[in-house]
Automatic annotation (TrEMBL):
<comment type="pathway">
    <text>Lipid metabolism; fatty acid biosynthesis.</text>
</comment>
<keyword id="KW-0276">Fatty acid metabolism</keyword>
<dbReference type="InterPro" id="IPR011284">
    <property type="entry name" value="3oxo_ACP_reduc"/>
</dbReference>
<dbReference type="InterPro" id="IPR050259">
    <property type="entry name" value="SDR"/>
</dbReference>
<protein>
    <recommendedName>
        <fullName>3-oxoacyl-[acyl-carrier-protein] reductase</fullName>
        <ecNumber>1.1.1.100</ecNumber>
    </recommendedName>
</protein>
<keyword id="KW-0443">Lipid metabolism</keyword>
<keyword id="KW-0521">NADP</keyword>
<keyword id="KW-0275">Fatty acid biosynthesis</keyword>
<keyword id="KW-0560">Oxidoreductase</keyword>
<dbReference type="InterPro" id="IPR057326">
    <property type="entry name" value="KR_dom"/>
</dbReference>
<dbReference type="Pfam" id="PF13561">
    <property type="entry name" value="adh_short_C2"/>
</dbReference>
<feature type="domain" description="Ketoreductase">
    <location>
        <begin position="3"/>
        <end position="176"/>
    </location>
</feature>
<comment type="subunit">
    <text>Homotetramer.</text>
</comment>
<keyword id="KW-0444">Lipid biosynthesis</keyword>
<dbReference type="InterPro" id="IPR020904">
    <property type="entry name" value="Sc_DH/Rdtase_CS"/>
</dbReference>
<comment type="function">
    <text>Catalyzes the NADPH-dependent reduction of beta-ketoacyl-ACP substrates to beta-hydroxyacyl-ACP products, the first reductive step in the elongation cycle of fatty acid biosynthesis.</text>
</comment>
<comment type="similarity">
    <text>Belongs to the short-chain dehydrogenases/reductases (SDR) family.</text>
</comment>
Amino acid sequence: MARSVLVTGGNRGIGFAIATAFKEAGDNVAVTYRSGEPPEGFFGVKCDVTDTEQVDAAFEAIQAEQGPVEVLVANAGITKDTLLLRMSDDDWDAVIRTNLTGSFKVAKRAAKGMLRLRKGRIVFISSVVGLLGSPGQVNYAASKSGMIGMARSMARELGSRGITANVVAPGFVETDMTAVLPEETQKQYLGQIPLGRFGLTTEIANAVRWIASEEAGYITGAVLPVDGGIGMGN
């Protein structure tokens, strides 16, 4: 039976691949986006996840279109990479606000409807960087690591109502962002990955779709690494 799915930041990259995977499985999929255009074939809602009013409005529009959100994928995120001593307060605040606080806002709003339904799936898109750390990404790593504590607390709070909260932690993935890395940097990263290649956005999407499925109904508070072995589940 088709479910009402929301993927934040679902208009490109990993978010678009996730939205596509759910759609191909027969679900009704809405995506939020902050800039650009919504992808064709999806119900698109312009929304800045850091703005509570915009989040509320987005959920109301989605409910009117395809019913209350039963599966939330909190994927919207930004980077502002620079070394610690050069990182401004604004660089820190912007990344934490979008990646961590934004995920909190959409999860809190989704949980309202899920509690009424007595079922639901919340999936946070973290990163191997949140587990291993990365030079120049103190803000990003903190935001992605914070998702784990958030998901596990929600898992404990919401589990008795049939709601699961899990984290998917992608490694290095073939996207526009990795394509522009210097060849030497790419080689350096590949040398650390046991499988010897970057991941595909579809591989991340399939893992997200599975952990939000009925088959994974007894999994909650988990961190699922999809990283070619670079993190070894740390």
